[in-house]
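#structure-requests
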Amino acid sequence: MADELTKIDLGGAAQELRDKIRSAFVDMIPPEQWAAMIQAELQAFTKPLHNTYGEARPSPLQAMMRAELERIVKAKITEALASPEWSSFDGAISAGVQRAILEHRDALIESMLKSMMGTAIQSALSQMRYGG
């Protein structure tokens, strides 16, 4: 039995070596600098970005959240439009849709007005900047 070769788990040994090297590098960074690096990465991930004109763009986190919300909302809308209330749309609004519109009319009106005003303001600013 003493002559049997012991099998060495190289995968486990390699992982252990990677962990030790990673730990050694992390230990070389002073705690306050480590905290500052982490804070900077969190800021970069969550803070809106600005282009050269100072216009804000969504942060990476906001972009991820919006993409996921867009996916969810599109699925819900597709599901709703496949319902019997919408599949044979003849121009008449069903009671369910009418009720939903009435329940959310303030938010719908606000959203429509914001969109229209935003478009008008952007158009005016564009004309002032570039003429036209």
